[in-house]
Automatic annotation (TrEMBL):
The keyword Calcium does not apply. It comes from the Bacteria. The keyword Transmembrane helix applies. It comes from Brevundimonas vitisensis. This is DUF2975 domain-containing protein. Keywords: Membrane, Transmembrane, Transmembrane helix.
Length: 200
């Protein structure tokens, strides 16, 4: 006499594996990837507009007069005022432009990756290169933010703004490592696909 299985009462065998949301796919046209591609396109346009605006302000900042203008940095315990020099203005606008420009490059590569996901063909050698470039750009942006905040805390607002510690770099560094690991996963997938095509 066979022993009864431990599956929940009232659930037929294989029912859970057959439960699917109608039309819910992760790859190909009309899939989740295509929806995310549209969201990335919208974010790309908005970020391009912001980056362009910051570059225009950077150019304008070279020529506008800056007489009798101060920058105030404050916290709960007090604040400090510094004269707004042209070098400080260009440094601030340049840093912000580089920050948004870095993420604009990341979105550029992500859009190309999701285009291959929408086509249902993710394991392409180009995606490996794009993921590595995303990881490199993210590392540069993370290091730049850490350096700029340290300079601002030391020169512009000493004792008011705290520089980022090493512990605050753990999450960004982890993200960079995850991107490089994903690049290796895609590289292995592309290799297996190439071997499969040669075998066929």
């Amino acid at each position: 006499m066979p022993l009864p299985t431990s599956r929940p009462r009232g659930i037929r065998p294989g029912l859970l594996t057959r439960l699917r949301v109608p039309g819910f796919r992760t790859l190909g046209p009309g899939s989740v990837s295509s929806l995310l591609k549209v969201a990335l396109d919208v974010a790309y346009v908005l970020l391009a507009l912001i980056t362009g605006l910051m570059l225009i302000l950077l150019v304008v900042g070279i020529f506008i007069p800056l007489e009798n203008l101060d920058v105030t940095v404050s916290n709960d315990e007090g604040g400090t005022a510094q004269p707004l020099t042209r070098a400080l203005l260009i440094f601030a606008l340049g840093s912000i432009s580089a920050y948004f420009g870095g993420f604009l490059l990341i979105l550029t590569h992500l859009r190309k990756i999701f285009r291959t996901l929408t086509l249902g063909d993710p394991f392409q050698p180009g995606n490996v290169r794009r993921l590595r470039q995303i990881g490199l750009i993210l590392a540069v942006v993370t290091g730049g933010v850490w350096l700029v905040q340290g300079l601002v805390a030391a020169r512009l607002a000493p004792g008011i703004m705290d520089p980022q510690g090493i512990g605050e770099l753990l999450t960004p560094v982890f993200s960079v490592l995850v991107v490089f690991v994903l690049a290796e996963v895609f590289r292995e997938g592309a290799r297996l696909r190439r071997e499969s095509e040669l075998t066929i």
